[in-house]
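Take a minute with the sequence and fold tokens given here and flag any structure token that looks odd. Thanks in advance.
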Amino acid sequence: MAEISFYILPSELTQERDEFACKLIEKAYRSGCFCYVLTDNAAQSQKIDDLLWTFRAGSFIPHQIYTGELPALEKVILIGSLDVPELWQKTVINLSSYCPKQFDNIERILEILDNSEATKELGRNRYRQYQQYDITITTHKI
């Protein structure tokens, strides 16, 4: 059963949400976890991919956009809007507007919400969906 954490940011800026996501991705990578970053579409995936190269000077996080073909190496962060590949189901950072499919197979899901009403409403919908499965949810106000 998945462990779900919601991070609620004080800002309404999508850019700050994306930068916070990069910090979580970096933290996961440094702890030896190669996560999957779930996005809504290819444009959002590309935005996160680009930001991972520039968000912190001197930071290197091996990553690539997932288009359905598994990478040659397993030790890489994947970013994409497709279903979470099996080997990346340990940790999912969800930047999409929906719950990951088969989330009961995922060990940990990190949901990041900015403080805009639209994002919070989509987050509330996902929160309720997780609750229906009696999953323990923690909330962190940043």
